[in-house]
Design brief:
This protein is of the alpha/beta class. It has helices spanning 12-23, 39-45, 59-69, 83-88, 90-115, 149-166, 189-201, 222-238, 256-266, 296-302, 310-324, and strands at residues 3-7, 27-32, 50-53, 73-76, 120-126, 170-176, 179-180, 208-210, 216-217, 220-221, 245-248, 254-255, 276-278. Helix 1 packs across helix 8, helix 5 runs parallel beside helix 6 (149-166) and helix 7 packs across helix 11. The termini are far apart.
Length: 334
């Protein structure tokens, strides 16, 4: 039974990745923080996981865990994931998002040499490494020019992956564009939108307060992106030449305004503008203007394709949030 070691397993994409790996017959060892309140929900939703406690910032313990588990593949999805929060906590962002990949990559190479067998490493990178690109769409050759601490931390890890790949490790960097689902935490603007829209439709709230409505993003379905990670890891395990940098994206961009309009429509509200207020406090200090990805490489190499479109993605999140509030979604009413 092949073994996968996964950091960030309690997060949105990590939990979907765990589902996929278990279904494929892997032993899945997931790293969780002590006292993580989301652990119980993960164990109830996804039985069969082997969860171990640890802290990404504890370099020695992290390296020791990898040595003990001796996995066939490592998926690094851990770290601070909020661009906005990275401006408030730039040092923590460096410690938790930039440095742990260095520890994991070095530990993976040590296991590979000790066990005399391939160890695949898959880094969950981010489109934020491109900052405010001058070309659209972006691909794996687009210059890396981050404009925020989160993007800079991811860029450091991205370059490390390439360095260890040159050392013989089957290391891949999956450059993930925005990906959403009902499992997205409420601290993210997309989930803030769908949750608030659901509550407005039920008369529980009266307004949705946002920053810019004009920012454009390439939004995809998180389970599709988790599948891409699993495909890259499996391919690199069987053939080290499959290890590479891969853009994971839908290839279509939408504005925050589009997201809001589709969310309200899914809740049965067409005239949504009176409910939405803009507050400059919610604007990022520096924001990428437009991010849209070209995923031609992984489509050609591994056959990956997105399966869920933008409207369906947003609608599923709104319906989920309406159900959480104890009501029947409009599409399910008789």
């Amino acid at each position: 039974m092949p073994t996968a070691f996964v950091t960030g397993i309690t997060g949105q994409t990590g939990s979907y990745l765990a589902d996929i790996l278990l279904a494929r017959g892997y032993l899945v060892v997931g790293l969780v923080r002590g006292g993580d309140e989301t652990r119980q929900a993960l164990e109830e939703r996804t039985p069969g996981l082997d969860l171990v406690e640890g802290d990404l910032a504890d370099e020695q313990h992290l390296a020791r865990l990898v040595a003990e588990v001796a996995p066939d593949m490592i998926f690094n999805l851990g770290g601070l994931t909020s661009v906005a929060a990275s401006w408030d906590h730039p040092l923590d962002t460096a410690r938790i998002t930039a440095l742990p990949p260095a520890v994991l990559l070095d530990a993976a190479l040590a296991v590979q040499r000790r066990e005399d067998r391939p160890v695949a490493f898959v880094q969950a990178s981010s489109a934020e490494i491109f900052g405010s690109p001058t070309v659209s769409p972006q691909n794996e050759e687009t210059p890396v020019r981050p404009v925020n601490p989160y993007g800079a931390a991811k860029a450091y890890a991205h370059y490390l992956v390439a360095s260890y790949r040159s050392m013989g490790l089957a290391a891949s960097s999956c450059i993930l564009y925005n990906h959403e689902s009902p499992r997205r935490p409420e601290t993210f603007v997309t989930r803030k939108i769908t949750r608030t829209v659901a509550r407005i439709s039920l008369g529980l709230e009266t307004e949705l307060v946002l920053g810019s409505l004009d920012a454009r993003r390439d939004w995809g379905w998180a389970p599709d992106y988790a599948l891409a990670l699993a495909m890259v890891g499996a391919a690199a395990t069987s053939d080290a030449t499959a290890a590479n940098d891969y853009v994971i994206a839908s290839g279509v961009s939408h504005t925050v305004r589009d997201f809001v309009a589709v969310a309200f429509a899914a809740a049965g509200i067409d005239d949504w503008e009176p409910y939405v207020k803009q507050d400059p406090r919610f604007r990022r200090p520096v924001d990428a203007t437009e991010l849209v990805g070209d995923s031609s490489r992984i489509r050609a190499a591994l056959g990956w394709r997105p399966t869920v479109g933008f409207d369906e993605l947003v609608g599923s999140m709104v319906r989920h949030d309406i159900e959480l509030a104890g009501a029947t979604p409009p599409s399910e009413q008789g």
